[in-house]
């Protein structure tokens, strides 16, 4: 065992302190970072679905509400842009000619109604809808009608072959000498076709199938759709060429691709319709050249698609006998009144929880109406199955159908029909009161035009419009009062 003296002899001499030698103390050596070199701060994050940007990562996109779609983008540095020489000076707005913005008819009246009278040269229209709803058929009909008027039309298909489009054109009768067809999916080639043909109308089916070679990513991605749309819009404005773009939709019904696509185009139209119904509706969501409250009605069949100037007959049953559980109303789609029939069936239930099924109506709204009818009018529904549906596959969401739906249920529960040639509309509150609806005069005029003789409308302290000739109008302040007025007269015993 070593002694303390031996340990002191083996210890090396310590270096003299800086204070003893008079030297300045040395600065500590920099520590090596365990995390490596500092990273450059990113410019932000961008949603891969809609292109929305944020300065920091969040789990949910603030624009399209999708989860986990924000991706980090590279660092960018702002650049100073020098003013350029003005070629065309700004003019007073009163001296700008509006002749170039005059709408031209597409030849399809219902489509012109939605667009605000026709399509404006240089305008870019985006038509979106579910697969198989009839977008390509409608645009092929528009292309053929436009071409028969002597205008050159270019139809670019990226989803089908040229032979497939030709077969559909034969089936619907959409052949024309001035209608040119190209099956392409490359953006540069599409622009080359536009340069070669110089069309007055260009149709691209669809914008999600066209890809630019100089942009990374597959066709339909955010960057690709943005580049393709920007290039086609630039060509349309430079050539004063009307352009129709077909857009896909997601499972939620939103237009696929970046939300900036809807901001770039001039008109956005939604093509709606039930796959099992012939009725198709086209409504404008955005329109820089006209109103957005117009709706176009079409009939899709094996022979093509046709406009329906008067589609009311599609939503009425063909029965000539008054049946319990049926009530007719007038809905308003945009500016157009549509007569629709609502049917209800109330049957005894063998289940502990009776069924409540709806078709064409809001299920939560119908559930509220059933509770109001049972509580305020005394309609026995607690042990019965209730089924409520619209005729013809119509979809109604406005509150004006509350009263006809409630009367149809009450009629079915009592097994007693309503008055013949009766039309009703009104909003029902939880207290059983009736509230006025919009466009009342337009609804009454449409009912009178179709031969209805009676109408029940909500009482209004500001007064109701005068009833058209041949239509007897009755006002009711509550659902119970409307049920009393609506019942057909019972035969004398």
Number of helices: 12
Approximate shape:
elongated
Mean pLDDT: 86
Q: Sheet with the most strands?
A: 9 strands, mixed
Q: What are its keywords?
A:
23% strand, 12 helices, elongated, 25% helix, 21 strands, alpha/beta, nine-stranded mixed β-sheet, 493 residues
Structure commentary:
The protein is α/β, with parallel strands linked by helices and 493 residues long. The chain is built from twelve helices and 21 strands. The chain has helices at 4-10, 18-21, 109-115, 135-148, 162-172, 187-197, 222-239, 260-264, 363-377, 402-414, 440-449, 479-486; strands spanning 44-47, 53-54, 70-73, 124-129, 153-157, 179-183, 201-205, 242-247, 267-272, 279-287, 295-301, 304-307, 326-333, 336-348, 356-359, 384-390, 422-424, 427-428, 434-435, 454-458, 472-476. A nine-stranded mixed sheet has the order 6-5-7-8-4-9-10-11-12, sandwiched between helices. The longest helix is centred in the middle third of the chain and has 18 residues, at 222-239. The radius of gyration is 34 Å and the shape is elongated. The termini are far apart. Mean pLDDT is 86; it is low at 4-12, 17-27 and 32-42.
How do the strands and helices of this protein lay out in sequence?
Elements: H1 4-10, H2 18-21, E1 44-47, E2 53-54, E3 70-73, H3 109-115, E4 124-129, H4 135-148, E5 153-157, H5 162-172, E6 179-183, H6 187-197, E7 201-205, H7 222-239, E8 242-247, H8 260-264, E9 267-272, E10 279-287, E11 295-301, E12 304-307, E13 326-333, E14 336-348, E15 356-359, H9 363-377, E16 384-390, H10 402-414, E17 422-424, E18 427-428, E19 434-435, H11 440-449, E20 454-458, E21 472-476, H12 479-486
Parallel strand pairs: 4-8, 4-9, 5-6, 5-7, 7-8, 15-16, 17-20, 20-21
Antiparallel strand pairs: 1-2, 1-3, 9-10, 10-11, 11-12, 13-14, 14-16, 18-19
Helix pairs in contact: 9-10, 10-12
